[in-house]
Amino acid sequence: MTSLFPSVDPGSKKGGKSGRMVPFRAIVPNLITLLALCAGLSSIPLAMQARFDLAIWAILAAAILDGLDGRVARLLKSTSNFGAQLDSLADFVNFGVAPALLLYIWALKEIGPIGWMACLVYAICAALRLARFNVALEGEPQPDWQKDYFIGVPSPAGAIVVLFPLSLARSGIAIYEFPFVIAAFTILVGLLMVSRLPTYSGKRAGARIPGESVMPLFVIVVILAGLLASYTFQVLAIGTAAYIVHFPFAWRTWRKRLAAQETAPDASAAIPEAGDRIED
Description:
Blueprint: H1 24-48, H2 52-75, H3 81-106, H4 113-136, E1 149-151, H5 155-162, H6 164-170, H7 179-193, E2 198-200, H8 214-230, H9 232-245, H10 247-263
Antiparallel strand pairs: 1-2
Helix pairs in contact: 1-2, 1-3, 2-3, 2-5, 3-4, 3-5, 4-7, 5-7, 6-9, 8-9
């Protein structure tokens, strides 16, 4: 008897055959992606109930889970085209649609069509960025040093940055009194996502840690976690501001390394595999 549902093998590029058993490790990354999607979608009704604190936490949870699914997939050797497509769709909802609706419900609805247009621009830019990234995976591989950078603001970071006005407001700064400024900022963040601005990826930061630094690192992480739990929006506002400030520094180092590559005789020597270029 034919099964009611088609068989999908996340560990196979050709898809699963009917009746084929799929190892549980192969679906773990997809379960994490679905949990991230649940968190992102949950931020929308929370915003409609004016529970903006929890709505931001839901998007933060989606960003954390989004950072885990790809790493877990590579750790378990269970990467797949199915997982990549699911992750891309979840990213659009979590970091394109949900933040836009959250901002609209919070402040931008006060300025009518202009506020809605700002949300549309941001969400569309998020979709365009993800589409551009998916196409780039099939293009020519890039030099190894470029793995230290994203081209444009990545979608999870873009969601946190675009919520910067809300983080400021929850920290006690009455930015909601300037909805047109918030709308302009929303559009700007969307444009940065599809721009050619290089930003640090941090993928390889801390890949190797000296043994004597492990204990201090544990202490720092615990302190940061405690601060985030106790002063969530202040920490988010400061962290977002620091991220924005790093843009010109990333641009400058990118230009220097690009110039060095163009002048080096073996500029095309170190080329990573296309599968290594994972954005989020």
